[in-house]
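Budget justification aside, the reviewers requested a transparent look at the raw inputs and outputs of the sequence design task funded under Objective 1. We therefore reproduce one unedited record. The lines immediately below are the structure tokens for a 836-residue chain.
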């Protein structure tokens, strides 16, 4: 089968594998591909698969790059794969041998098979790990090799990655999407499955750790700002690992623990996605906020297995490739099965002299990372340098040759991609992974991650706009019949662990959600009243009450003239402050804080939920700037903006209620919302009493009249509830029954305190009806009596009601502080953080 030249850029005949692939697609192949590419793009978007480039991601706007996946898989025959597999297995054994030697007897250095400048002179060599007895006696558990196929069909090693190889999550997502997209072709090709390899990695880590088969393994991530954070969260979910950041962990007596809501949980193994230099601020980079103080002590003591063990970064130097043949012969007694592109380290004068004349036909790479005090530069293709640039480069190489490594240039082979309805060939490079399989064994993941260069480029880089492809090793005797996704592994407890850091962010996510809702609601009421003042006489009690509410919700600052003194100045100040993110608790500030808290628990939110949060904050920030222009403002525009934002916030809060797992993290989110609601409702009702908007004198009760009655019901979002129960009554008793005592009304103080008590009891492990220390800090709504709340003293003040409202507001602060001390800081643990 072949494509017509007018329809495709491909004119060569198809190989048997590609012929079989297109045959499986059936009729209307080209039309199918266009449709499938659209389906693929939609699936990537729906799954929230992203790859964020630091230089392009805008932290202010939340711009992220969707993961780029081409519709075509890369097809490998079984014989071709077997040759790749054998070469990769051998090289993985060599890398493990180098690690054992360099951090042990150092025979390779003594025998001049490995230059000391590429080990001790490299940032990645960690002297603190020399002589350490790592858990299980194994340094490497994951090794990645970037290999390229020459135009002649031979595979060459271009680079190797051992510190924290990326891609294991992305290739799994690629397989999940593409295998479903081409279900028939996938089955007929008998693609080698991925499942066993992932299972082998986790099983080996468990068996070699101090925890054995029940070991608790976690995936250590730098956090949501990492460009590959999606795959960290994805891998953790798929493999049943706890996703942790450095702040989630602590060291006690040379053992590693996870800070959870219910205390410290031991961690026996880490699959790290963090560069070594950031792992331990006590021994490595002191400015690191990503690591765990004392972690290297735990590793040296053998109490925690880390994949890979710290100190492997020097293996990634391209200069090492030139020494691998001799090292392999020394360690294994056999030649390398898969060659690397010819590589010369210019720290050797003979090598430098031999490569200087051929710079124009080579690739010049840095031997060291950028933070070693050595000259740093990006890899350069010599053919793109003019004569002056080549001469200048040669001069720098003569002055500091050890910083430069030269590698032969080889044009990458190309693979078909689907672009704008045409098949377009692009350069591609394959990353293959070897993972641990038992104490000394290795297993190669069948296939890998194919990285495709951007159109017109020769370097396959995701950071430079490249894309990816699924890789099918075809011809397996054990054909997969369903999408190839590894089953989730069992974790140490049936209850999902919630880290203290995540819990704290969820708690504040709840608080900021409700705080934003209260600020929006209050702003609407204040502006609505100010608008009505044009057609009705001012009500002093309402003016004082609404002015106080604006102050309590930080809608205006105390120095602004009061609403009663200067309504228009008050109005302009409120409008100007709505989007001020520098003003604590303004609507704009709260929306930004809500977004930041959400970002820190991004893995727990659906893509739709996150999109609404980002869009709400962005829209409000942008539109609030237009409310004040040249001293002029539009009241209607402000009211429209507040109403639209409340609708979006309802979607955010609805997702919290309907789309999040009801675990302890969610209970803290709910507790945060209820605490803010209790504070808002109690302080609003108390302000109404203090400023005369509400009063419970006998004469008012008899006249069925209550100042601010409708306004208070509206503020409590209880107008509909009230009318359903009390019709057109307007008296203090009916009002209090609705906003204070109704345990079925989610906007009443009784419902809030009762529900909050239940959440706190469940959080502590008690039944909702049982008492716990945190719940006892809150008033007991079952003891509230309407007659007590309606009773007034000689001055006409309902003293019991005022005391209760004050107790509620005070309890909010006490409970919030107690939650922080008990669940977030773990200050009650007195063991040494590091040392013995």
């Amino acid at each position: 089968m072949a494509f017509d030249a007018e329809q495709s850029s491909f004119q060569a005949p198809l190989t048997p594998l590609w012929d079989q692939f297109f045959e499986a697609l059936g009729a209307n192949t080209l039309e199918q591909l266009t449709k499938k590419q659209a389906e693929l793009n939609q699936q990537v978007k729906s799954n929230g698969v992203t790859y964020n480039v630091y230089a392009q991601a805008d932290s202010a706007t939340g711009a992220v790059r969707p993961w780029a996946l081409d519709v075509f898989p890369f097809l490998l025959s079984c014989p071709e794969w077997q040759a790749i597999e054998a070469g990769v297995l051998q090289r993985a054994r060599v890398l493990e041998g180098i690690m054992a030697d360099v951090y042990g007897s150092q025979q390779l250095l003594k025998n001049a098979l490995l230059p000391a400048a590429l080990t001790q002179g490299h940032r990645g060599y960690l002297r603190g790990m020399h002589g350490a007895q790592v858990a299980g006696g194994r340094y490497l558990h994951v090794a990645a090799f970037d290999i390229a196929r020459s135009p002649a069909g031979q595979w060459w090693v271009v680079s190797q990655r051992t510190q924290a190889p990326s891609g294991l999550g992305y290739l799994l997502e690629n397989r999940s999407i593409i295998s479903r997209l081409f279900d028939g072709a996938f089955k007929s090709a008998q693609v080698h499955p991925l499942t066993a390899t992932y299972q082998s990695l986790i099983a080996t880590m468990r068996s070699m750790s101090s925890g054995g088969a029940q070991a608790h393994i976690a995936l250590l991530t730098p956090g949501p700002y990492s460009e590959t954070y999606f795959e960290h969260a994805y891998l953790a979910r798929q493999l049943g690992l706890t996703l942790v950041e450095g702040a989630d962990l602590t060291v006690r007596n040379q053992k590693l623990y996870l800070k959870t809501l219910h205390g410290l949980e031991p961690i026996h193994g880490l699959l790290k996605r963090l560069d070594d230099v950031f792992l331990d601020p006590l021994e490595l980079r002191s400015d690191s906020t990503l690591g765990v103080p004392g972690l290297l002590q735990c590793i040296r003591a053998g109490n925690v297995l880390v994949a890979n063990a710290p100190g492997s970064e020097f293996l990634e130097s391209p200069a090492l490739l030139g020494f691998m043949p001799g090292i392999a012969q020394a360690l294994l007694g056999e030649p390398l099965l898969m060659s690397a592109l010819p590589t010369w380290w210019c720290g050797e004068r003979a090598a430098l002299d031999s490569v200087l004349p051929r710079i124009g036909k080579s690739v010049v790479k840095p031997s060291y990372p950028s933070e070693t005090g050595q000259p740093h530069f990006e890899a350069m293709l010599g053919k793109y340098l003019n004569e002056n640039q080549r001469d200048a480069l040669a001069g720098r190489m003569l002055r500091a040759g050890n910083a430069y490594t030269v590698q032969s240039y080889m044009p990458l082979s190309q693979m078909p991609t689907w672009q704008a309805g045409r098949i377009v060939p692009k350069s591609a490079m394959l990353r293959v992974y070897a993972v641990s399989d038992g104490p000394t064994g290795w297993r190669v993941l069948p296939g890998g991650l194919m990285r495709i260069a951007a159109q017109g480029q020769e370097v396959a880089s995701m950071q430079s706009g490249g894309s990816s492809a699924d890789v099918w090793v075809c011809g397996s005797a054990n054909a997969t019949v369903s999408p190839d996704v590894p089953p989730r592994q069992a974790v140490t407890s049936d209850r999902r662990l919630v880290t203290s850091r995540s819990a704290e962010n969820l708690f504040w996510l709840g608080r900021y959600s409700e705080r934003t809702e209260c600020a929006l609601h209050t702003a609407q009421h204040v502006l609505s009243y100010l608008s009505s003042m044009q057609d009705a006489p001012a009500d002093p009690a309402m003016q004082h009450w609404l002015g106080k509410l604006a102050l309590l919700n930080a809608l205006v600052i105390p120095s602004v003239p009061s609403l009663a003194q200067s309504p228009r100045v008050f109005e302009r100040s409120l409008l100007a402050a709505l989007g001020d993110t520098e003003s604590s608790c303004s609507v704009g500030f709260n929306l930004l804080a809500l977004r930041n808290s959400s970002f820190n628990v991004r893995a727990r939110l659906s893509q739709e939920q996150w999109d609404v949060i980002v869009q709400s904050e962005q829209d409000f920030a942008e539109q609030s700037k237009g409310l004040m222009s040249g001293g002029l403002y539009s009241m209607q525009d402000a009211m429209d903006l507040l109403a639209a934002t409340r609708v979006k916030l309802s979607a955010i809060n609805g997702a919290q209620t309907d789309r999040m797992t009801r675990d302890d993290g969610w209970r803290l989110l709910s507790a945060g919302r209820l605490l803010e609601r209790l504070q808002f409702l109690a302080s609003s009702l108390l302000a109404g009493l203090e400023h005369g908007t509400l009063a419970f004198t006998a004469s008012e009760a008899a006249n069925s009249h209550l100042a601010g009655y409708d306004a208070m019901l509206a503020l409590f979002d209880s107008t509909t509830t009230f009318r359903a129960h009390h019709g057109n009554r307007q008296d203090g008793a009916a009002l209090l029954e609705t906003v204070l005592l109704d345990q079925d009304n989610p906007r009443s103080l009784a419902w809030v305190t009762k529900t909050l008590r239940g959440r706190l009891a469940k959080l502590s492990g008690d039944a909702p009806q049982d008492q716990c220390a945190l719940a006892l800090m809150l008033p007991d709504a079952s003891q509230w009596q309407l007659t007590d709340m309606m009773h007034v003293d000689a001055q006409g003040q309902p003293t019991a009601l005022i005391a209760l409202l004050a107790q509620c507001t005070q309890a909010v602060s006490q409970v919030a502080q107690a939650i922080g001390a008990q669940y977030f800081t773990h200050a009650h643990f007195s063991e040494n953080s590091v040392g013995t």
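The radius of gyration is 33 Å. The longest strand covers residues 422-436. Computational costs for records of this kind are itemized in the attached budget.
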